[in-house]
Amino acid sequence: MSYRATDGMFQSVDLERHIRRLHRAVGNAIADGKHIVFAAGSVQLINALVYALSPDADAASPPARVVATAPYYPVYRTQTNMFDGREYRWGGTTAPWANASRNSTDGDGFIEWALIRDEKVAKKASEYVQNSIMGASRDTQLRMLGIVKAMLASLHGEEDIFAFWHGVMSTRWRRLSAAVSRSRRISLQKMAPGYCTYFKRVTEPSPAYAWVKCEREEDEDCYNALLKAKIITRSGVWYEAGTRYTRISLLKRDDDFEVLMERVADLVNAEKYGEAPGSSSM
């Protein structure tokens, strides 16, 4: 299908309208009076915003410094260094791990968007996306339109997707937290309940990922320490969080999550009885 959606434009006006309706209903962002810029995933969208917010190449000011707070996706650094533009350069991390709380989910391979108040910045970001991949394809936008329409139709109903996923993810976080709380070997990041603009009440944490820290001196490489217990994670080294930290995905099928919980329980129980994870006492 063509990349052009409506009146020769690269963005679907109908999709923009439904996105504004969704944000208005959920209450997580003010979309009215702002420009919407689409991109094929968060990495491209962030780089488009970095480009749009940086000074022009012929400006007298020095290049803008691009920084990120650990833990962050490594591609943010490598992509910035790869382009090596006059407008901006990588400036490192903003703070040590102790001041960071979570890492957002990555939506690459999917359409994402930004709400931008400044028209000049929005135009520059949109031009970046169009010049790099001609914008998000029309079929991708049509699929997203169908998803947004389904989400709007289910709001506060029996099939409310937000209520369903909050219930699933908050339960998983609560179970994992309870299991890890019995251990002195590993610990989880601290997450407090917060007010939800959609449910209009304070809700329990429901993260997609859990950051684990290995507390014992000999477990300097937390990734390998958990791997020995048959728990697959992603090392904090990838996110400049250090080897003491590793990330567990909670975005699993129910059966896979149950296997994860069994292996976490084995790890904690082995610690209690002084055994190696996976071993059996005679």
UniProtKB/TrEMBL annotation:
InterPro entries given in the database record: Alliinase_C, Ethylene_sulfur-biosynth, PyrdxlP-dep_Trfase, PyrdxlP-dep_Trfase_major, PyrdxlP-dep_Trfase_small
GO MF annotation, one: carbon-sulfur lyase activity
Keywords on record: Pyridoxal phosphate
Family of this protein: Belongs to the alliinase family.
Protein name: Alliinase C-terminal domain-containing protein
Needed co-factor(s): pyridoxal 5'-phosphate
Domain Alliinase C-terminal stretches: 1-101, 111-267
PANTHER family tied to this protein: BIFUNCTIONAL ASPARTATE AMINOTRANSFERASE AND GLUTAMATE/ASPARTATE-PREPHENATE AMINOTRANSFERASE-RELATED (PTHR43795), TRYPTOPHAN AMINOTRANSFERASE-RELATED PROTEIN 3 (PTHR43795:SF20)
Ribonucleoprotein found in the keyword field: no
UniProt keyword Aminoacyl-tRNA synthetase, yes or no: no
Coiled coil: none
One of the GO biological process terms: amino acid metabolic process
